[in-house]
Design a protein that fits this description.
This protein is α+β, with helices and mostly antiparallel strands and 137 residues long. 22% of the residues lie in helices and 42% in strands. The chain has 3 helices and 6 strands, in the order ααββαββββ. The chain has a 6-stranded antiparallel sheet. The protein is globular and about 45 Å long.
Length: 137
């Protein structure tokens, strides 16, 4: 089982929300989601938790791309541009600092036009355990 399979099958909340991991390389990952009516808040735009869930699955992929079990411990999210139903959001996660215990990652979420919608930064804690995966993709 690859890391992509492991996360896609075991992160049920992200999968049920419509998030799809599309690429994982060591230190980099992308995930996508198409905004539907179920993702909208009372103001008619994409609910903040949707952005966070999309960013979180991309963060998980990057933080675990070295195949050591890693969990997020702190995140910061900034909303910059609203998405609406029909938009396709892409989360591109990049490892900024691969510390052996506390890695740091930045995620940029854009829509299909390349508009920057959201930025998420995250710290994680890497445990002394390996993941039951063989490869990333």
């Amino acid at each position: 089982m690859t890391l992509k399979d492991f996360l896609s099958q075991n992160d049920r909340f992200a999968a049920n929300s419509g998030c799809r991991l599309t690429d994982i390389h060591e230190g980099h990952a992308t995930a996508e989601l198409t905004v539907t009516a179920e993702h909208l808040n009372a103001g008619g735009v994409c609910q903040g938790g949707v952005y966070f869930t999309l960013a979180d699955i991309a963060l998980a992929a990057v933080m675990n791309s070295h195949q050591g079990l890693t969990f997020g411990i702190e995140n910061n999210i900034m909303f910059l541009h609203s998405a609406k139903a029909g938009d396709t959001l892409t989360a591109e996660a990049t490892e900024v600092y691969n510390h052996h215990k506390i890695p740091y990652v930045e995620v940029r979420i854009t829509n299909q036009h390349g508009d920057l919608c959201c930025v998420v930064t995250g710290l994680a804690y890497r445990k002394d355990a390996t993941l039951p995966v063989e490869g990333l993709m």
